[in-house]
Hints:
Blueprint: E1 3-7, E2 10-12, E3 18-25, E4 34-39, E5 45-51, E6 58-60, E7 68-73, E8 78-83, E9 92-98, E10 101-102, E11 106-110
Parallel strand pairs: 2-11
Antiparallel strand pairs: 1-3, 3-8, 4-5, 4-9, 5-6, 7-8, 9-10, 9-11
Amino acid sequence: QVQLVESGGGLVQPGGSLRLSCVASGFTFSTSDMNWVRQAPGKGVAGVAFISSGGKYTSYADSVKGRFTISRDNTKNMLYLQMNNLKPEDTAVHYCNQGFSWGQGTQVTVSS
């Protein structure tokens, strides 16, 4: 079955950086579009970034454009999210997503 395992979250000060990783298994990763989504405290799930199966196409939520970069390594079944210039409003559980499948999430907390 599909398994997605995220890592890389943590506590960081405003302006700091984090790199999230997601290891995928149980499906053909190299032919699957992938997403990063997140859920802030008391809010619903929101899309953060999208990457096409081959990595050629990406898109971002307006709130993270210019600060976050999504990437993938199809040789390793890995998905990444480089997050720079983090803001308190980025505080959320971040999830790797493929279709209707999600990982357990990784907490990102931005606070001074």
